[in-house]
Amino acid sequence: MGYARVSTDMQADQGISLDAQVAKIRAYCGLHDLELVAVLEETGSGKSLERPLLQQALGMLRAGEADALLVVKLDRLTRALRDLLELIESYFQDYSLLSVAEHIDTRTAAGRLMLNLLTVVAQWERETIGERTSFALAHLASLGCWTGTRPPYGWHAGPADAEGRRRLEPDMDEQAVILDAIELRSRGNTLRSVAAELWAMGHRPRQGSAWSPELIDRITKPGRQAG
Question: The whole model's pTM is what?
């Protein structure tokens, strides 16, 4: 059984058009003497497995109406590594998966090895991208640029520069509250009593109906960066 998919914005792309995919699926079956019981053609995003025709194809596998699922390329099946791993674990331990572009045929040991290698490489690539992103964010932070969504208490994000970077700038009103909190702590007050004193002084936190001991602890520590 064949499965073809295009995203709505890819229908005019002749390299992955539905007609082109179906033609390759039929040619592959003819070359390898495979019986093609059906070809399901779907239009939709590959970000989720909850697609009607894909679910129909998987249902046909479960019902024994087909022994294998054939795609032109694995990304026609799904673009998410997590979903591909789910399909491998849930379906392609018992049924065969064939992909024209990646030369995958899980009916053979070599095909299963190739699929496993591809998933490992994809996982490595995803983790490498994550490491690069973390490095880039750390570098921006070292330059004093704000990389989060909400600046810590006592600070606000300044205007963006020409490269879109925003530096943290002190919020003078909140810095004054922090100084009051530090002074109260220096007198031996507990976190809860400092919270109560700040409230009595008319200071209000950004969120919530009261100061939390956790926030007081963070803003009164040396090198404070309270969230």
Answer: 0.52
